[in-house]
């Protein structure tokens, strides 16, 4: 044994060849936490001291290679002052450099995921052999930072500047074929021969057949481009990166600049440049939001797994209603392997549901992501029906009929008679109280909400809504089913609109008030899209359906009359009354024409502009900041109310819910992160400036307290 640690070991195989194996004790994956980094330093020193050492094979004892840095350590690490952060990064790079400088050839045997710091470890080796089951890449920009262990230095020297800029600026994971084609790895082999093939390569390098020294010189010297070539490559690359990333995401362009500036330097100076850019990005609010969101995502998944523990396996599902949502639910369930019965009252509905599922599957087949055999197997596992035959076999039944309380209560009560006593019934209602629907049932404890988002196959979030009488085992079954469907469930308590719609409607109310006060809705859309929303509020209403939105707004107004009932006729109500329902009937805030691909294309419409003119009651001067504040304050305050009232479990659920449910910009983290980054005090002061807009703009007592105490939602 050359080195024995808790994260890695180094021992001789034979003939002076050592194997450095990463195998982090007590964890299912390898990651670069403080311990692993420290032990890599110690193991490298121990290897360097071995007089008989001829070569080093780097392997992993887990199913992954190394997943990357330990992001749970980032929050504390990133709080360090610049000088300390620089010292940490320099020390880490000294360790990687020392490994790269070992006096013998080194080969990485990449058996599984090797991302971020994990792939930077591979780049510090002379040669890289990749299993056909592995993936590699430098995804740091997705956390708002750039690689910090030499990735922006070694990668351009290994695969060329153009390729490196693409890899780093997109942060995309690279599959074996692509990695090999670009030169990121030297060979791709089947998983079962990886160890042997990597060892062979190492032996050949030891025998002098492969010039490992030349590899090293290339990695530690300036990039081999003359000044003009370098300028051409980076100028074009940076323009492309800037355009793709947009102005809200500084990391991709900063990473590209780091590569540009370090390209002409030797390793030591080049690493200094990387560290400068790394520290700059660590200080951005985007990186704080993205790292925070990553941690929230982990917390949400962990909570879901906890809920689902007692859920058992869902063998058979059923759905009532084969409309937009029912069809989507049937497709997703079948596609992810849970057979499903789909019942409707009309043949036409069933046909439509099956056609939709068929279309989605055919798309996968045409893109080479599914075989025709698999497609027919999936389609066969959806059984359309006009009656309840087979419902006694279903473990979970999801109701997705029209959004009408009377119809829903009748359908649920009837269904309960055809299912097993231990089967779970869930409603996909968008707004109707789960406790109220449960009153129609004999077994209300077996009932809860299961709120999917449209389109079901694309939207990751499912709200699982606990009614007053819903049992824990019902929640467990439904959370389990959501996980089987590949969705991310959050468990929320019952209230009008549940969580996502409850906070979305105050946002829409903010929009109505803006138009009332003279804002051009096209400008509001543009400003909110610039803020990072996937679409502005007027366009979003058109996509959701203005009729759907109108009915939901009524439910919300009934539930929270003090703040959600308008005392004026807003533009959305005027649109509804004029039967302008948005995309579904081709006209709303915008007019929709079919583009060449048959998709609805948004066009401006004069009659919408004159309606907005008649909705106008004032001509307030509104800056972009006013628009953002007037849209965001009601949403943020309502989110805080959901926390205060225990509708949500914790802030992680709140922010993840908005990111996954409405596409809230990831680089802002979510509504609560938005308040945190501004500070509760500044947020309350901002809200107070708009106090004349009514109760939706009044901070809660809890927010005022946070403002006084200087506390935040997230650590
Ligand atoms: N469309 C959305 O964006 C969206 C998003 C989330 C939740 N929802 C909710 O999902 C539910 C369904 O919405 P949708 O948009 O799919 O509606 P839809 O009108 O497209 O589909 C409803 C289907 O239910 C069928 N149906 C009516 N009565 C039935 C019965 N007794 N038994 C079986 N089938 C019956 C209809 O024939 C129709 O095919 C609603 O509660 C809605 O609020 C919709």
TrEMBL record:
The gene is fadB. NCBIfam families: FadB, PRK11730.1. Keywords: Fatty acid metabolism, Isomerase, Lipid degradation, Lipid metabolism, Lyase, Multifunctional enzyme, Oxidoreductase. Its EC number is 4.2.1.17. Belongs to the enoyl-CoA hydratase/isomerase family. This is enoyl-CoA hydratase. Residues 317-495 form the 3-hydroxyacyl-CoA dehydrogenase NAD binding domain. The keyword Ligase does not apply. Pathway: Lipid metabolism; fatty acid beta-oxidation. Residues 497-592 form the 3-hydroxyacyl-CoA dehydrogenase C-terminal domain. Pfam families: 3HCDH, 3HCDH_N, ECH_1. The keyword DNA-binding does not apply.
């Amino acid at each position: 044994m050359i080195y024995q640690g808790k994260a890695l070991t180094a021992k001789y195989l034979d003939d002076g060849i050592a194997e450095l194996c990463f195998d982090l004790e007590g964890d299912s994956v390898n990651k670069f936490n403080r311990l692993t980094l420290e032990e890599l330093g110690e193991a490298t020193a121990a290897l360097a001291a071995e007089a008989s050492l001829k070569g080093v094979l780097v392997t992993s004892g887990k199913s992954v290679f190394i997943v990357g840095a330990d992001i749970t350590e980032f929050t504390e690490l990133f709080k360090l002052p610049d000088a300390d952060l620089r010292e940490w990064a320099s020390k880490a790079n000294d360790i990687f450099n020392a490994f790269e400088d070992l006096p013998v050839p080194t080969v990485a045997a990449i058996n599984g995921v090797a991302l971020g710091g994990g792939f930077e470890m591979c780049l510090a080796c002379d040669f890289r052999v990749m299993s056909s089951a592995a993936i590699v890449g430098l995804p740091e920009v997705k956390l708002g930072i750039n690689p910090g262990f030499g990735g922006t230095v070694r990668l351009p020297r290994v695969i060329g500047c153009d390729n490196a800029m693409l890899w780093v600026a997109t942060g995309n994971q690279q599959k074996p074929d692509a990695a090999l084609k670009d030169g990121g790895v030297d060979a791709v082999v089947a998983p079962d021969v990886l160890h042997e093939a990597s060892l062979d390569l190492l032996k050949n390098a030891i025998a002098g057949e492969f010039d490992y020294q030349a590899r090293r010189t290339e990695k530690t010297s300036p990039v081999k481009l003359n000044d003009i070539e370098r300028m051409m490559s980076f100028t074009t690359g940076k323009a492309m990166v800037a355009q793709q990333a947009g102005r809200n995401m500084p990391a991709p362009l900063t990473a590209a600049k780091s590569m540009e500036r370090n390209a002409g330097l030797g390793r030591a100076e080049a690493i200094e440049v990387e560290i400068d850019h790394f520290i700059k990005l660590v200080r951005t609010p985007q990186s704080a939001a993205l790292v925070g969101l990553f941690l929230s995502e982990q917390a949400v998944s962990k909570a879901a797994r906890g809920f689902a523990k007692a859920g058992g396996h869902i063998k058979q599902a059923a759905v009532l209603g084969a409309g937009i949502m029912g069809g989507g639910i049937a497709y997703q369930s079948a596609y992810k392997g849970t057979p499903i019965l789909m019942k409707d009252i009309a043949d036409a509905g069933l046909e439509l549901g099956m056609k939709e599922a068929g279309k989605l599957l055919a798309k996968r087949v045409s893109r080479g992501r599914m075989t025709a055999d698999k497609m027919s197997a999936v389609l066969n596992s959806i059984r359309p029906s006009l009656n309840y035959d087979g419902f006694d076999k279903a473990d979970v039944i999801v109701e997705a009929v029209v959004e009408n309380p009377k119809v829903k209560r009748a359908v649920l009560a009837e269904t309960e008679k055809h299912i097993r006593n231990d089967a779970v019934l869930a409603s996909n209602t968008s707004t109707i109280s789960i406790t109220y629907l449960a009153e129609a049932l004999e077994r209300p404890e077996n009932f809860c909400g299961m709120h999917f988002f449209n389109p079901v196959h694309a939207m990751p979030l499912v709200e699982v809504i606990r009614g007053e009488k819903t049992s824990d085992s019902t929640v467990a079954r439904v959370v389990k089913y959501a996980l089987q469907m590949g969705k991310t469930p959050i468990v929320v308590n019952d209230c009008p609109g549940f969580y996502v719609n409850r906070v979305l409607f105050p946002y829409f109310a903010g929009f109505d008030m803006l138009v009332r006060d003279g804002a051009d809705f096209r400008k509001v859309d543009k400003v909110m899209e610039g803020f990072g929303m996937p679409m502005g509020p007027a366009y979003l209403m058109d996509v959701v359906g203005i009729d759907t939105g109108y009915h939901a707004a009524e439910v919300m107004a009934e539930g929270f009359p003090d703040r959600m009932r308008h005392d004026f006729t807003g533009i959305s109500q005027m649109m509804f009354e004029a039967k302008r329902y948005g995309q579904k009937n081709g006209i709303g805030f915008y007019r929709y024409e079919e583009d060449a691909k048959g998709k609805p294309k948004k066009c401006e419409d004069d009659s919408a502009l004159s309606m907005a003119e008649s909705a106008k009651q004032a001509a307030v001067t509104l800056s972009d900041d006013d628009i953002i504040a007037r849209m965001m304050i009601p949403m943020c305050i309502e989110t805080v109310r959901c926390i205060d009232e225990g509708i949500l479990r914790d802030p992680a659920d709140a922010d993840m819910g908005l990111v996954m449910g409405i596409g809230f910009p990831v680089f802002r983290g979510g509504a609560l992160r938005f308040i945190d980054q501004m500070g509760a005090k500044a947020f309350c002061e901002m809200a107070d400036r708009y106090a004349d807009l009514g109760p939706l703009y009044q901070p809660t007592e809890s927010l005022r307290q946070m403002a006084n105490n200087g506390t935040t939602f997230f650590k």
